[in-house]
């Protein structure tokens, strides 16, 4: 009888051990690094990598579009985008009657803010090959770069300007190409953007930026 009792107890212990092992195997094991500690200060802090020229080149864009003041009934515009949703080209078709002036808008945009290191941008519009249009424009892309220059009071100050694509032309061509080119300087860490003068400020780190091309086609009729 005692022998039978011992056998039953041994079997029960073995089954209990096996059952516990199976339950443990079913429990997900969380890496210790992902388990919050009792002291939040002891948890690892993920730091952002420092800003460099690559962030300027990939983050800041110059968007060339049809200006609202030239959005006439006889004007059609087609905006082409990349697979990532970035504007790659603007194609504008103008039908008669042709206006005396035709405006294109260029706007500075950014996918990120530049808080630690502001960026100074000086941009100019061009027609065809290096034929300047209008004046140079200068901006600071800093802590509100991705918000199109939203001020603390909530007033929007877009970094944008317009140019007359027909400036200085004696006649209207069948087609013309307009674009913008900028020099962008990445300022040193800790630079106060409030005291920066974007018209003259420079640094040792500079990169060139280009807008998407704006192709304007003037579609003439058979009698033109």
Explain what the structure shows:
This protein has helices spanning 2-26, 53-59; strands at residues 60-66, 75-81, 87-94, 103-110, 119-127, 131-141, 160-164, 175-186, 206-210, 214-218. Strand 2 and strand 3 form a beta hairpin. It starts with a helix and ends in a 6-residue tail after the last strand. The chain contains two helices and ten strands. The strands form two sheets. Strands 2, 3, 5, 6, 8, 9 and 10 form a seven-stranded mixed beta sheet that branches. The chain is α+β, with helices and mostly antiparallel strands.
Features:
elongated; alpha+beta; single chain; 7-stranded mixed sheet; 10 strands; 224 residues; 3-stranded antiparallel sheet
Low-pLDDT parts are 1-35
* Nearest-integer average pLDDT: 83
Structural category is alpha+beta
What characteristic shape results from the CA principal axes? elongated
Give the termini distance in whole angstroms: 118 Å
SS elements, strand count: 10
Helix percent band: 10-25%
| Beta-strand residue percentage | 25-35%
H and E order: HHEEEEEEEEEE
Rounded radius of gyration (Å): 31 Å
Number of helices: 2
Q: Describe the main β-sheet briefly.
A: 7 strands, mixed
Draw up the topology in text:
Blueprint: H1 2-26, H2 53-59, E1 60-66, E2 75-81, E3 87-94, E4 103-110, E5 119-127, E6 131-141, E7 160-164, E8 175-186, E9 206-210, E10 214-218
Parallel strand pairs: 3-10
Antiparallel strand pairs: 1-4, 2-3, 4-7, 5-6, 5-8, 8-9, 8-10
